[in-house]
Design goal:
Blueprint: H1 2-9, H2 12-18, E1 20-21, E2 27-28, H3 40-43, E3 48-51, H4 60-63, E4 73-74, E5 77-78, H5 79-88, E6 94-100, H6 103-112, E7 121-127, H7 132-142, E8 150-153, E9 157-159, H8 165-178, E10 183-192, E11 197-201, E12 204-209, E13 213-225, H9 230-234, H10 248-254, E14 258-262, E15 268-270, H11 274-285
Parallel strand pairs: 3-6, 3-8, 6-7, 10-14
Antiparallel strand pairs: 1-2, 4-5, 8-13, 9-15, 10-13, 11-12
Length: 289
């Protein structure tokens, strides 16, 4: 039932009826106050930031902690290369890699290098300790790896069967920025909770639902940030692990500076566990990526 509801709420035909289409598979809610503009030429100058400093604990049985989960081989190339190529093939050539100073981070920088092998410009911000998403961005801004409006893409949040996504998303982002928004977040309309939900009365289980459906717009690991927010980021505590979502995002949202874009679930696979890794492998092998 949950899976049926997910398909129903994320059905693109229904989204077209109830939402405003702003890209091939991107939508916004009516009344959001966002008007689409043409920023396609300017969009390709945006740097794409890949956050790759995590330990990948849920896939450590695959990596054996000998390399980053973003470097897991899928059909003879790293998992992250599919996301890298998605943007590169649409003309984006500035990439910022946020990595740590461990063997995991080294496996990334050794493969991607300065970008000369790919026709891109790759630069790195290296964490010496865990600082969270907020700390990673603050560090990258402080060391000038990030110095202008940018797109953030968790490279294991795979976009599938949507080759024009980078151009569409970047154009919506710049349209929103030109109209006063500071952060644009990509969401899917509802998601499946990845664990079983157990309901009880005084400890006696009355209901068990495996992977229940949550009918709330859920953030995907892709968003755009205007340089207007950099002051807020630089104000974060640099000596602690801090998340951008619970600090800068929350403050920006409460101030009316955040814009939401919706995309059907069909085009997103979060490869952060074994089932989704296998799902993505099957898509690649079937050449449906």
């Amino acid at each position: 039932m949950a899976h049926e509801l997910l398909r129903e709420i994320s059905n693109e035909g229904e989204m077209k009826k109830n939402l405003l289409q702003v890209g091939e598979h991107l939508y916004i809610k009516p009344g959001q106050g966002l008007k689409m503009e043409d920023h396609k030429a300017e969009a390709k100058k945006l740097p794409v930031v890949f956050a790759m400093g995590g330990s990948g604990s849920r896939l450590v049985h695959v990596t054996r902690d000998s390399f980053s989960k973003h470097m897991i081989p899928i059909n003879w190339q790293p998992l992250s290369k599919y996301t890298f190529d998605l943007w590169k093939d649409l003309g984006f050539n500035e990439f910022r890699f946020l990595i740590d100073n461990t063997h995991r981070g080294n496996s990334i920088s050794e493969y991607y290098g300065d970008g000369s092998a790919f026709g891109t410009k790759n630069t790195y911000s290296v964490e010496t300790k865990k600082v969270g998403s907020g700390g990673a961005i603050k560090l990258a801004i402080d060391n000038n790896v990030i110095d202008k409006n940018f797109i953030w893409h968790q490279p294991d949040d795979m976009i599938v069967s949507y080759k024009n996504f980078p151009a569409d998303f970047a154009n919506v982002f710049l349209s929103a920025v030109s109209q006063g928004f500071k952060i644009v977040v990509l969401c899917t309309p509802g998601t499946l909770y990845p664990y079983g939900e157990v309901t009880d009365t005084n400890g006696k289980v009355t209901e068990f639902v495996e992977k229940p459906f949550i009918s709330k717009d859920s953030s995907v690991g892709i968003w755009g940030m205007s340089s207007d927010v950099f002051k807020e980021v630089k104000g974060l505590e640099g000596d602690k692990e801090v998340r951008i979502e619970s600090t800068v995002f929350k403050k920006t949202a409460r101030g009316g500076g955040m814009c939401k874009i919706l995309m059907p679930n069909d085009y997103w696979i979060p490869v952060n566990d074994d089932p989704n890794l296998k799902k993505f492998e099957e898509i690649v092998k079937a050449q449906k990526f």
